[in-house]
Amino acid sequence: MGNVVETIMNIEFFPFEQFPMAALLEIESACHPFPWTEAVLSGCQGQGYDFVVAAIKGKPIGYYITHRVLDEATLMNICVHPNHQGKGYGGQLLQNALERLKRHSITHCFLEVRASNKGAGALYQKLGFLLIDKRKGYYRTNGEREDALVMSLQLQ
Ligand SMILES: CC(C)(COP(=O)(O)OP(=O)(O)OC[C@H]1O[C@@H](n2cnc3c(N)ncnc32)[C@H](O)[C@@H]1OP(=O)(O)O)[C@@H](O)C(=O)NCCC(=O)NCCS
């Protein structure tokens, strides 16, 4: 498979175009309670976007999407297939995302996370993100709406 962006441990990072959208949608729906549609995922390309997929032996296991505007960026999505969670891959993905942002001279990265998503929140905290705000009722749930925690990391 061509166009490897980077290799870290046993994961290789590829541009998302290397994989069929169906394989990425499968990861998306396994990871998120309200997964993005194909149209939303496919829309994350072009100016300012990094949509990078992590693969082991050519098989995609997760991805991240960042979007840059001027010197700021947002982490739009990050996920690791449940079969591969808890093995350090999420941390590797996020570090890769942040390194690429630094190379683009991005000064701050922002993200939103469900208040109930303790695992992702712990990952972001571990890599230095700080809680800066809360958006009331931002996310859909099966019952009442859920708050988003807004976090940011200064990169340089
Ligand atoms: C969040 C996610 C990407 C983490 O990926 P992962 O490969 O499981 O994470 P890692 O194994 O690299 O863990 C890195 C750190 O994150 C934290 N963490 C990850 N999952 C955790 C959990 N379930 N509970 C507590 N801490 C957790 C820990 O600090 C961990 O470091 P440690 O192992 O030294 O304690 C993954 O769980 C996922 O895809 N979740 C579903 C999608 C999602 O919620 N995305 C974020 C939306 S904002």
Automatic annotation (TrEMBL):
PROSITE patterns: GNAT. It is found in: Cytoplasm. GO terms for molecular function: protein-N-terminal-alanine acetyltransferase activity. It catalyses: N-terminal L-alanyl-[ribosomal protein bS18] + acetyl-CoA = N-terminal N(alpha)-acetyl-L-alanyl-[ribosomal protein bS18] + CoA + H(+). The keyword Hydrolase does not apply. Residues 11-156 form the N-acetyltransferase domain. Pfam families: Acetyltransf_1. InterPro entries: AcTrfase_RimI/Ard1, Acyl_CoA_acyltransferase, GNAT_dom, RimI, YpeA/RimI_acetyltransf. Keywords: Acyltransferase, Cytoplasm, Transferase. Acetyl-CoA binds at residue 117. Acetylates the N-terminal alanine of ribosomal protein bS18. Belongs to the acetyltransferase family. RimI subfamily. This is [Ribosomal protein bS18]-alanine N-acetyltransferase. It comes from Ferrimonas aestuarii. The lineage of its organism: Bacteria, Pseudomonadati, Pseudomonadota, Gammaproteobacteria, Alteromonadales. The gene is rimI.
